[in-house]
């Protein structure tokens, strides 16, 4: 009986290994991924899940994650509390029975060893089939016919100068507004994408599936402002972070839904949508984020110039940055570095060798955009 189960398990393992290998080989051709998967197969999957779960006001994916965590904890407890199997006493059975017993024990060991391998492979297949293959697409610059080149110190100073001005102007434009509720904010993001779709059809966002995270309080300690769930097609926003961060984060997570998997790509798509929007709230959130990215890039090369540009921010913007700093300090925890390290590895394994710094690469996109169109 054990031998039959082991054979079935081995056959199943072989099948999913073949599927995983196929996905890996398929992903190696970026043109094929762009033309067949990203703008074809994935687009169908994405819309299907948004139709399926988008109308539900809370995140199904967050509940799914909770069940998985509870299941893993339950399995761990069972493993720890499991009674050890009785051992055979020497001389209690003849040598033939002892050999059979050892063989059965070995088969059980192999069978149990295959289980985590199978789970990993199944997750790999499902994750990539539903979304992960997008990490291998050509990307937004290709769709926009935009040539992104290596930038220099002059470019960084130029873009910092432009962004500090844009940030100050956008802050003054929203000085007397009341920040919207979650539903109002998500409606603004939906409208921004609908407006962007007119000039850029690949940014079509229908139906909508943008929701507050049920685990925002956890996100505060882990350091995330939003995330995309590839298993349910939902985009979640941490609605407990400072209000001025949430509009751009929402645009960023929607970009993930549309198949822009890499963080730089999602930032660039969000930049494109928010910058051409007529919503001043989106403008401020966007330009503040873009200034912080470009200023960090400049700081690595010329810290003095980076500090000088920061001094040019108006007092209201500086007040927001202080609020942001206080928020981060309040929720600073010992678990954040661990999750940051795990996320760093995840990004590196998914075509983003710069890890967390991949977000900052949007600076190159903005510089290329300005050089081509003369505006940001």
Write a structural description.
This protein has a 3-stranded mixed β-sheet with strand order 1-3-2, sandwiched between helices. The chain contains 15 helices and 3 strands. The chain folds into 2 domains: 2-136, no CATH class; 140-373, no CATH class. The longest helix has 36 residues, at 95-130. By secondary structure, it is mainly α. The chain has helices at residues 2-27, 30-53, 60-81, 95-130, 140-144, 153-173, 182-199, 216-222, 246-257, 263-276, 280-301, 303-311, 315-330, 336-349, 362-373; strands at 210-212, 226-229, 234-237. Strand 2 (226-229) and strand 3 (234-237) form a beta hairpin.
Short description:
Helix content is 69%, strand content 3%. The protein is mainly α and 376 residues long.
Order of helices and strands: HHHHHHHEHEEHHHHHHH
How many β strands by DSSP? 3
Rounded to the nearest angstrom, the radius of gyration is 25 Å
Shape: elongated
Helix-strand category = mainly alpha
Share of residues in helices: 55-70%
Q: In percent, how much strand structure appears in the residues? A: under 5%
> In total, how many domains does the architecture comprise?
2
Measured between the Cα atoms of the first and last residue, the distance is 68 Å
Order of strands side by side in the largest beta sheet?
1-3-2
